[in-house]
Structures are given as C-alpha cells and as structure tokens.
Amino acid sequence: MYKIKKSDKVVVLAGKDKGKQGIVEYRVDTNHVIIEGINVAKKAVKPNPTAGITGGIVNKSMPIHISNIALFNATTGKADRVGFKNLDGKKVRIFKSNGEIVKV
To answer: Exposure pattern of 3-18 as b/e (b: 16+ CB <10 Å)?
Structure first.
C-alpha cells in the first residue's frame, strides 16, 4: 500500500512550486507522481498531421518525487505525514499528527 495514491490532495514541500497544493493525477513509478498544475515545463512538440497534432510549445506536467510532497490534512489545514494502522484486519492510512483515518 502506498502512502500517496491517485486523487489525493497534496502539498509540495520542496522545489520551485513549494507551498502549492494539487491533486495527484497518477503514479509514474513507485517514487514519482504527476500532480495537476505542479512542476509544469514547456516542451516543444513537432507537428504530426496524420495524428492531428499541431506543433508548437506546450505545457507539460513533469513527475515529482514523493519525498518532495506530503498529504494535505483538511482538519489541520497543513501538510501531514502518513502512517498505517490495522483496523479489523484491514490496513488503513492515518495522519501522524492526529491519528485520523485518511479519506479519499
């Protein structure tokens, strides 16, 4: 079980977008995620008429390492660390600061 999953609200802890919040779109691999509107880079794209792609410069969300983000805790209004706990034989994610279960 991952500490950060798809559709989690996260806060960026380090980098050019430090302090910004966003929603995880998907996981690239075990250590990197794509967050909408965060870590956006400009990329030159060649035109491809057969695929219907116009050329030019486009904005692309780049992966960010999970060590540079933290889950957003709505009750405290801050970034929070995540832990795990077994409840009735199920493994659930909890916030470290107040012990509440993370709701997706």
So the answer is: ebbeebebbbeeeebe
What predicted TM-score, i.e. pTM, was given to this entire model? 0.83
Q: Which domain holds residue 27?
A: 9-76
Q: Tokens 């916030």 correspond to what residue?
A: 95
CA torsion through residues 48, 53, 59, 64, sign: negative
Which CATH number is 32's domain given?
A: 2.30.30.30
**Secondary structure class of 45 (helix, strand, coil):** strand
In this prediction, residues 58-65 reach a mean pLDDT of 94
- Residue 33 sits at φ, ψ, to 5 deg, of -135, 160
Closest CA to 40 of 19, 70, 15: 15
What average pLDDT does this structure show over 51-76?
Answer: 93
